[in-house]
Design a protein that fits this description.
The protein is an alpha/beta fold. The protein contains 14 helices and 13 strands. It has 2 domains: 215 residues, Spore Coat Polysaccharide Biosynthesis Protein SpsA, Chain A; 82 residues, no CATH class.
């Protein structure tokens, strides 16, 4: 039985690497020169909170300057905030109170892991899926409030929508999909990539399927299905993307989304950064500093002085792959805090774009190439790492 499991794991890894080779190296070369324009009308939904105010104007500008679709409107879904209201007035966006969108609010969600409150993070996922009630077009584009488009983009071609994939392969996302829909994923890569074009009809069918199989409202089903031991237990983009790929395979294109993470203080240098970044980079994500400081403050209060991860010698419930682990997982590594986790992500994304290699780190010592990580940190985290 162990041999069978190992063989299946090896096959899964090889399949994933083959997909990466195709989607990051071969397909972009074949698609080079494609006309970047679509006649599919859409509206845009951007869930935001106060910590996004610095980046939000650039997010809106990125949508207006680079999304090559007829856009009927941009809707910002946020809590009551004068700062966000001011941005919406300046940028001509519609502001919707987040408490008016769903029967539940952030206060109704109890999702805390090791003292880290992830309720707001999960609530924003619910808001994205509720965007189908905020406009009348057949499709709507959700954009994360820390993500700025820097190149012309389309999300549909020849009647088929794009599903954009990334390197963030996070097993708990696949596991919760199976619990929600009683079926396994069929695509080996991740669809968690900072944005998603939703077909309102497909999304409605996904919600109905979840409710039918779980006998409760779709958001209640997700709350029941998430693993409360995981900092990042569900991805709205992953669940929708995997469902659409499985059930509407002939109506989608799959492509890789080339994103680059940057420190938030670089947000004022977007134009300069875009000029020196490779032409295939499609967006910048300015999510590292402020987002982590706010969301992890309660986590640090339990004794992790200086914003570091768990103390040396503590083993996590499952090993972490630094090649695709999200920020919420990396900060749990012993001695790895905000800045080091962000540095790991920035380093790997830069190499993944420049060298087309999803497996930037192959041994623990490879992490020493990341600024701020030395031999002591590597020694402390080695037992909590896996590489594939």
């Amino acid at each position: 039985m162990d041999l069978v499991k190992r063989s299946a794991t090896v096959y899964e890894k090889l399949k994933r690497r083959a997909w990466y080779l195709w989607i990051k190296r071969v397909k972009p070369a074949l698609d080079a020169g494609d006309l970047v324009e679509s006649q599919l009308p859409i509206y845009v939904v951007i869930p935001a909170v106060d910590k996004d105010v610095e980046v939000l104007p650039h997010v809106v500008d990125g949508v207006r300057n680079h999304v090559r679709h007829p856009i009927s409107g941009i809707v910002v879904v946020a809590p009551q905030s004068e700062a966000i209201r001011s941005v919406c007035q300046q940028k001509g966006c519609m502001l919707v109170d987040e408490t008016s969108v769903l029967p539940v609010t952030k206060q109704d969600i109890d999702y805390v892991v090791d003292g880290l409150d992830r309720s707001g993070w999960l609530f924003q996922q619910f808001l994205k899926w509720s965007g189908d009630g905020l406009g009348e077009r057949s499709h709507y584009l959700v954009v994360d409030a820390d993500t700025v488009f820097i190149r012309p983009q389309v999300f549909e071609r020849d009647g088929r929508v794009f599903l954009n994939c990334s390197d963030e392969y996070h097993r708990p996302y696949f596991d919760v999909y199976k619990r929600l829909l009683h079926e396994s994923v069929t695509f080996p890569l991740s669809f968690t990539s900072h944005q998603m074009l939703y077909d309102r009809e497909w999304l409605g069918q996904l919600k109905e399927t979840i409710e039918s199989k779980n006998r409760c409202a779709w958001y209640q089903a997700i709350l029941k299905a998430v693993d409360r031991n995981q900092v990042s237990a569900h991805s709205e983009y992953e669940t929708y993307g995997q469902y659409v790929y499985s059930h509407y395979h002939d109506s989608v294109h799959v492509q890789y989304w080339f994103n680059l993470s940057l420190p938030r203080h670089e947000v004022e240098n977007i134009t300069q950064q875009a000029d020196i970044t490779q032409a295939r980079t499609q967006s910048f994500a300015f999510f590292i500093a402020m987002f982590v400081c706010i969301s992890l403050c309660s986590y640090f209060s339990v004794g992790n002085v200086g914003g570091s991860g768990r103390p040396p010698g503590v083993l996590l419930e499952s090993r972490i792959n630094p090649n695709d682990a999200p920020l919420g997982s990396l900060v749990r590594l012993p001695g790895v805090g905000i800045s080091r986790a962000g540095a790991i992500i920035a380093y790997r994304e830069k190499l993944q774009i420049n060298e087309n290699d999803a497996c930037v780190f192959q041994t623990p010592n490879d992490l020493r190439k990341v600024r701020g990580i030395g031999p002591k940190t590597v020694k402390n985290i080695t037992d909590n790492l896996r590489f594939e």
